[in-house]
Design a protein that fits this description.
3-stranded antiparallel β-sheet; 17% strand
Length: 472
């Protein structure tokens, strides 16, 4: 027994010595090699190890892609609204700051040195790294900088990106903040409205709002050529985020960018009258006709400045767009909202909570109607119209909300619509979106709406789902 014990003891000592020798003789070059950064995939992000409250944990899950709504039923009184709103906002900022992801670089004066980059999720687009310029012009206003997202054209992506910085630096729109991205990949991925880029825009707005340096009611998307196509689509897809949008030298089929979604935002579209590539001038005219029609039927709801510039082709003067847009501020609580839940790169915006409950008469005072109206394509599509009578929560808990839902069927019958249908089919190869699914919710807002039903759950659900626009 004693011999066996000594034998095992010697083996243990030899094993430890072997491990120490192996550690000392490992390749020093391998130790010096930096560990490559892991791709940014929200589903794999980890929450901080320190204990978090239920609401912060809910925010982490939400940023990881879970879509369940807040389910706590803690009652609140009218005099608690301000404090609860501030509490929720601070917890949201804390969750954004501690979330495991690549952040925005510091917001400094706009220039060639104010650059960063994001690795976009590989499950949305392979090998997608988005460099960007992020900077300011002028002195920061009390309410934060107006934010401009500029999307460049489809030439060589390096030269287009630098050109974007140069022309944006010269626009007369200070004070302002600019996010100027470079398209991550070329070829079939050279589209600003695809799902990986949707992820980037929602991340940008979430981080920008949480920083406190951006005015959430003064956000503008604009671009040139390919960026014009992209910003027109994004204007209809993210209209609830925006104060305005300004595509230039573009022109999208109305099927890809429904005009009714642009209610309550300022919309500028400037195209050369001779710019007939991909029917840009024709489609710009269709967009103008539709905005004119809706503005005539709804005065003040569809502010627009759409021009076919005489004698000009694809190259036009870009300088008037941002100064015009900057005159407009988003109304966070419009009395009427029109919405068509259209598809973009296979994804759709999640329906607002009010629309999910369109048939729940006990929860919302709603009215639903279905009727046939002309369609621009073969797919079934849905439009929503919400009318809100704004009341203080002290005076009335019932929001007085009526929702009209219409379904679009069939094809156009009049000659103008048939012509438009034909042009859109010819443009489909250029503008058609692929597939995929959307898991992000509507844009959040800094403050919870006071038009609640007396419970924190309702305030949070409406805040995250529709009114408030800041929670992503």
């Amino acid at each position: 027994m004693k011999a066996t014990h000594l034998f095992l003891k010697k083996i243990g000592i030899l094993s430890i010595a072997t491990l120490l020798i192996a550690g000392c003789t490992s390749d020093p070059q391998k130790q010096d090699e930096p560990t490559p950064p892991s791709p940014e995939i929200p589903e794999e992000s980890e929450e901080p190890e320190e204990p978090v409250d239920d609401l912060t944990a809910f925010f982490y899950k939400h940023m990881n892609g879970e879509t369940a709504l807040w389910s706590d039923s803690e009652p609140i009184s009218a005099d608690q609204i301000v404090a609860k709103r501030e509490e929720v906002w601070n917890l949201w900022k804390k969750a954004c700051e501690s979330y495991n992801e690549e952040k925005l670089i510091a917001l400094n004066p706009l220039g060639s040195n104010s650059t960063g980059r994001w690795k976009l999720p590989a499950n949305l687009e392979p090998n997608a790294t988005m460099p960007y310029y992020w900077g300011t012009k002028g002195t920061e206003p009390a309410d934060g900088y107006p934010l401009f997202l500029y999307l460049h054209g489809s030439g060589d992506k390096d030269s287009e990106w630098i050109t974007g910085l140069n022309i944006c630096s010269g626009f007369d729109d200070a004070p302002s903040a600019y996010f100027i991205p470079q398209i991550p990949n070329t070829g079939n991925y050279y589209r600003w409205w695809q799902k990986a880029k949707q992820f980037a825009w929602e991340k940008l707005l979430r981080l920008a709002f949480a920083s406190g340096k951006i005015d959430p009611d003064r956000v503008y998307f604009f671009g040139i050529s390919e960026g014009g196509y992209g910003s027109q689509r994004l204007a209809s897809f993210y209209a609830d985020y925006l104060a305005g949008a300004g595509p230039m030298a573009g022109g999208e089929p109305l099927k890809n960018a429904p005009v009714e979604n642009c209610r309550n935002i300022a919309f500028s579209l400037r195209t050369g009258a001779n710019d007939n590539g991909f029917f840009r001038n024709t489609l710009t005219q269709y967009t103008k006709d539709e905005f004119d029609r809706l503005q005539s039927a709804n005065p003040g709801s569809f502010e627009h400045n759409i021009q076919l510039i005489p004698g000009m082709g694809h190259g036009i003067d870009y300088s008037p767009t941002t100064p015009w847009l900057k005159n407009y501020t988003r109304d966070p609580y419009p009395k009427t909202v029109s919405w068509e839940n259209f598809e973009m790169d296979g994804q759709r915006r999640q329906q607002p909570q009010l629309l999910r409950n369109v048939d729940n008469r006990q929860r919302h005072n709603t009215e639903r109607t279905d009727r046939k109206i002309p369609d621009y394509g073969n797919q079934q599509r849905h439009r929503y119209e919400i009318r809100q009578n704004i009341h203080s929560c002290h005076k009335r808990q019932d929001n007085g909300i009526s929702v009209a839902r219409t379904r679009r069927h069939g094809t156009a019958s009049d000659p103008h619509r048939k012509r438009q249908d034909r042009v859109q089919r010819q443009c489909r190869t250029r503008h058609q979106a692929p597939h995929q699914q959307l898991r992000h919710i509507l844009r959040p807002r800094k403050a919870l709406s006071c038009r609640h039903r007396g419970r924190l759950v309702c305030a949070l659900n409406r805040h995250i789902s529709f009114d408030s626009r800041r929670y992503m």
